């Protein structure tokens, strides 16, 4: 029987798309991927939390040659998105053309197909997509016309 499987268990939920990180009660720091021990203050007992599904694009590029072991399509977008929690997520991007991306633009989490595994399952992973709706709201030309 085939189905849809995450590229790695425990990284994200698919419906709705949310990254599963952790929160340290000792220092208030968020982490992704989740850690039991806080990488900032070394306290134990960081608990799993769903992270914000929106953020801002911090860095980006296109991967044009498949990395070792990678079975999906190229090119694909790859970059860093900063979440409101103050952490930066290394992530796949749905946009593979860097000329169509702008630093600081709003981004939204989604779940995308990656490849089919040997059992015929569709392997999915998380990615950030340009958040067009929010971009429209924040468009400086619209602001100036008011
Ligand atoms: Zn901590």
Descriptive notes:
The protein has helices at residues 132-137, 140-145, and strands spanning 4-6, 12-14, 17-23, 30-31, 47-50, 54-63, 76-82, 88-93, 106-116, 122-130. It is mainly beta and 146 residues long. It folds into two domains: 10-51; 52-146. The strands form two sheets. A five-stranded mixed β-barrel has the order 6-7-8-10-9. Strands 2, 3, 4 and 5 form a four-stranded antiparallel sheet that branches. Strand 9 and strand 10 (122-130) form a beta hairpin. It is globular, with a radius of gyration of 17 Å. The model is unreliable at 135-146 (pLDDT under 50). Zinc ion (ZN) binds next to loops.
Distance linking N and C termini: 56 Å
Describe the sheet with the most strands: 5 strands, mixed, barrel
Secondary structure: helix percent: under 10%
The structural class is mainly beta
Distinct ligand kinds: zinc ion
**Principal-axes shape call:** globular
Number of domains: 2
Question: What is the radius of gyration?
Answer: 17 Å
Q: Helix and strand string, N-terminal first?
A: EEEEEEEEEEHH
Spatial strand arrangement across the major sheet: 6-7-8-10-9
Could you report the average pLDDT, rounded to the nearest whole number?
A: 90
Low-confidence stretches: 135-146
Number of helices: 2
**Strand tally, please?**
10
Tell me the β content: 35-45%
């Amino acid at each position: 029987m085939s189905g849809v499987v995450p590229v790695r268990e425990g990284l994200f939920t698919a419906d709705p798309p949310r990254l599963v990180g952790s929160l340290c009660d000792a220092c208030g720091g968020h982490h992704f991927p989740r850690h039991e021990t806080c990488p900032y203050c070394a306290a134990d007992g960081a608990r799993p939390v769903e992270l914000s599904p929106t953020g801002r694009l911090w860095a980006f590029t296109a991967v044009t040659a498949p990395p070792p072991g990678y079975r999906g399509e190229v090119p694909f977008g790859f970059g860093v998105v900063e979440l409101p929690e103050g952490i930066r997520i290394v992530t796949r991007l749905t946009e593979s053309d860097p000329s169509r991306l702008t630093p600081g633009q709003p981004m939204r989490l989604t779940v995308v197909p990656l490849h089919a595994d040997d059992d015929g399952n569709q392997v999915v992973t998380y990615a950030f997509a340009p958040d067009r709706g929010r971009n429209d709201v924040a468009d400086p030309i619209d602001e100036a016309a008011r």
